[in-house]
Design goal:
Elements lengths: L1 H13 L1 H16 L6 H26 L7 H17 L4 H24 L5 H20 L4 E2 L1 H8 L1 E2 L2 E2 H19 L1 H11 L1 H6 L4 H27 L1 E2 L7 H11 L11 H21 L6 H37 L1
Antiparallel strand pairs: 1-4, 2-3
Helix pairs in contact: 1-14, 2-13, 3-8, 3-11, 3-12, 3-13, 4-5, 4-6, 4-11, 5-11, 7-11, 8-9, 8-13, 9-11, 12-13, 12-14, 13-14
Length: 328
């Protein structure tokens, strides 16, 4: 009976993202029938695209038991550089290419300090977070840049669906294939589960972790460009505290902060959609704007709480299996 109860609890914890999403979605649909309008559902996907892409890169980092607090600054820096180039008359394609290069380079800088100098990811990315935001404010002179030309890019549609949604879907599917079907993906999970064991097994852990932070920087730059093209605006608050939303989206989707467990699809995709569903639902029920940060903090706390419970439960089951095997 105890084992059965434990399995039920583990099932609920493992499927918490889907259960929570259904509860939140159903709750807002009950409170506001207009919430189910097709236009609103598509809008949720559009608004999920930016943070969802960033959260996809964050998932790679979390799977290695690392963390990247600089993604919000990378979003800002990439968008600011692209905006400056476009405002100066440069082609949009060139501006976007430069922004992507900045994201990759920023991720490589983080990776260098983490893998070569052996500094803790938290310390490195916290430092580069402040450095990146300061550099971005220097580039923009703390002024907003309006770029209406980009709104046409962000609002363009392919087969009736907005371009940001297609990009979000493509990034998620590609990341899912990489994690599930390639040696690189298997190595990421191995490092998250047991870094020393992975090294003894012949995995080049330094190379894998290095690439993981590069992927995170790349996704953060892409997320910044999606945000920029959707609103046509670079503001001093762009990307501010978005790292927490990205972490929350990944963890809400089932990715563990302890490493080695989680998926991009449907996990992170669902987590990003859940966060945006909450924000959209609060607008529909006309909640006070002061409630927004309280709800967001609750969502982040819930994500970490569920992950901690899941980790403890899995450790208990693991110890139980070891005892049974030893007895046998």
């Amino acid at each position: 009976m105890t084992t059965r109860k434990g399995n039920i609890v583990l099932f609920v914890l493992n499927n918490a993202p889907l259960i929570l999403f259904a509860a939140v979605f159903g709750g807002f649909a009950t409170l506001s029938p207009k919430f189910l309008a097709v236009e609103n559902l598509v809008n949720i996907l559009i608004q999920s695209a930016s943070i969802g892409i960033v959260a996809t890169g964050m998932t790679f980092v979390l799977l290695t038991a690392g963390i990247d607090l600089s993604v919000g600054s990378i979003m800002f820096l990439s968008a600011a550089a692209a905006g400056k180039l476009i405002a100066g008359g440069q082609p949009i394609s060139l501006a976007f290419a430069v922004a992507i290069a900045i994201g990759v380079g920023y991720g490589a800088i983080n990776a260098f300090f983490i893998t070569r100098l052996k500094i803790l990811p938290f310390i490195v990315t916290l430092s580069t977070q402040f450095a990146g935001r300061g550099l971005s404010l220097l580039i923009t002179q703390t002024r907003a840049m309006n770029l209406p030309r980009l709104v046409e890019v962000g609002s363009s549609k392919i087969l009736g669906m907005p371009a940001p949604v297609w990009l979000f879907g493509a990034v998620v599917v590609f990341a899912h294939v990489v994690l599930m079907k390639t040696a690189f993906g298997r190595h990421i999970y191995a490092i998250g589960n047991d870094a020393e064991g992975a090294k003894k097994a012949g995995i080049n852990t330094t190379r894998v972790v290095f690439l993981v932070y590069v992927v995170s920087g790349l996704c953060a730059a892409m997320g910044g460009l999606v945000y920029l093209s959707r609103l046509g605006l670079v503001s001093p608050k762009l990307g501010l505290q978005r790292e927490f939303a990205a972490i929350a989206a990944a963890v809400l989707g089932g990715t563990s902060l302890f490493g080695g467990r989680g998926k991009v699809l449907p996990g992170t995709f669902l987590g990003a959609a859940l966060i945006q569903t909450v924000e959209s639902g609060l607008v529909f029920i006309k909640a006070s704007e002061y409630v927004y940060p309280l709800v967001t903090s609750f969502v982040i706390f819930f994500a970490v709480f569920v992950d901690s419970l899941r980790h403890v439960k899995l450790q208990q089951l693991k110890r139980r299996r070891i005892r049974v095997a030893a007895t046998g």
